[in-house]
Amino acid sequence: MNERRHTVLGLTVGAIAMCTLALAMYPSLRDQLGALTAVLPPQLTAFFGTDMVTPAGYVSSQIFTKIAPLLVMVTAIGAGALPCAFERSGVLAMALAEPVRRPQVLAAHALAVLTEVALLAGAVGVVLVALREPTGLDIPITRLLAGTVALALLGVLHGLLTLAVGAASGSYGLALGVGTGVALGGFLLSGLAPLVDTKLLGLISPFHWAFGAQPLEVGWTGSVLLGMLALTGGCVLLLAAAVTTFQRRDIG
Question: What is the spatial distance between Cα 163 and Cα 112, in angstroms, rounded to a whole number?
Fold first, then answer.
């Protein structure tokens, strides 16, 4: 965590600033977005979110599917790849020479992923709660909490995916590439899903698991909880895979 405190601090400040700006623009953009949505092709509005006028639709389309996931992914994937950077510099081999078990080392890095994501997602949630009334975005706090938890789980999943690839391969580039590629692919699949007849595209996207049931619009429903359960299950499986492969690998 100490290695990345400046990165996390910068991303957190950036998230607060960008979310504040997006929320502050809502009162002046509301009417323009309504007119714009009316003239845009349905396929284009479906990709970016059909409802950009209501408070929940605006926050969902502008913050929870663009700004916040981008910043959360950056910190989660960066934290997940950190063990590979330590291995490349020889720091990891020195740490493993001490009387410490490999699962403990990996658990510490998984905790770092969780902590960084929680800080960033928490900052987004605090901004949303603090500015909901001054900006006219009167969304119930329980729904904002549901969206924030979904955002955090989405970030942790990609961070642990990066950690698992790094634990299995020891390759910093491969871990970053897989984590980033899966994040971009999931975002595109989630956006393209409304444009096609099949639901399969959305179902295989972690973004759809997090936001497909619209936690900001409906709150803690069964569908929202099911998506969160899928993300949590994915996190558990990835952590187990990371521990298993890390114990078997030769680290010199």
Answer: 11
**Nearest CA-CA partner of 211 in 72, 71, 63:** 63
The rounded distance, in Å, linking the Cα atoms of 27 and 76 is 32
**Distance between CA atoms of residues 50 and 38, nearest Å:** 10
Helix (H, G, I), strand (E, B) or coil at 16: helix
Which residues have a Cβ under 8 Å from the Cβ of 101 and sit 6 or more positions away? none
SS3 40: coil
- Of 98, 12, 76, 93, which Cα lies nearest the Cα of 238? 76
pTM of the model: 0.90
The number of beta carbons lying within 10 Å of the beta carbon of residue 145 is 16
Mention every residue, 6+ apart, whose C-beta is less than 8 A from residue 147. 59, 60, 64, 125, 128, 211, 215, 216
Question: What string of pLDDT tens digits covers the 252 residues of the chain?
Answer: 566 888 899 999 999 999 999 999 888 877 777 777 766 666 666 666 557 778 888 898 889 888 899 999 999 999 999 999 888 888 888 888 887 888 999 999 999 999 999 999 999 999 999 998 888 888 999 999 999 999 999 999 999 999 999 999 999 999 999 999 999 999 888 877 777 666 676 778 999 999 989 999 999 999 999 999 999 999 999 999 999 999 888 776
* 93 touches 85 (CB < 8 A): no
